[in-house]
Amino acid sequence: MPKNTEKTKCSSTKEKILKVSTTLFSELGYRGASVRKIAKEVGIRESAIYNHYKNKEEIFLEVAKGIFSSPFSISTEEIKELALRGKPFLSKFSMQYKMLTFDKKNENMFRLLMIELMQNRDLREQFQSEFHNKNIKLLSEGFFIMMQNSMIKSSDPILIAYEFVSTLFYIRLQVMLLRFDSLSTNALATQFEKHVDFFWESIKI
Questions:
Q1: To 10 degrees, what angle do helices 35-42 and 3-32 make?
Q2: What CATH number does the domain containing 50 carry?
């Protein structure tokens, strides 16, 4: 078999493992989603899983990386272009954050990750690097550009980024807790937009 074909097949299998694992982890939890169950759903032998990942924890960390990834994955040039528009920069970030919050599969995984964070050091480090640090860096870059262009009040852009994203994270946590008890989240549906409006009014010049 040609090398390119083998590489494509390997990549396709790996992607399928991640997709199936995400579903099983979100439905069964970390302990309930065994390598055997993952392999069965993928349609390969259990031993074949180890051609791609050394153990279940490595699969879990790879899945978590996708869940933790910034909802606002754009280039530096795109950040600059959007930041120069001011409020739309915050609106776009907030709306993508909202989409992640109300996505059922993402929500279940987020709930699981919150539990596992207390028990897995590698996951905690990944949370810091893939979720916290990247979001703060991206937002602070945008706020710094706005300050340079006299669009918002001069302050510490990192601190402003903390303040902006912390409310979004708290709303996401609220949604998760309410849904865990099968309670309505309708009252929170507009909180993301309200947060952007309130925050922008407090920092604009």
A1: 130
A2: 1.10.10.60
Closest Cα to residue 195, out of 95, 110, 126?
95
Identify the domain containing residue 129 by its residue range.
69-203
Encode pLDDT of 122-169 as tens digits. 889 888 887 788 889 889 999 999 999 999 999 999 999 999 999 999
* Two tokens, residue 37: 């169950």
Q: What interhelical angle do 56-68 and 35-42 show, nearest 10?
A: 70
Q: Structure pTM?
A: 0.77
- Residue 70 carries which side chain, given as an amino acid letter? S
Spatial separation of the C-alpha atoms in residues 165 and 142, rounded to whole Å: 13
CA distance 163 to 153: 14
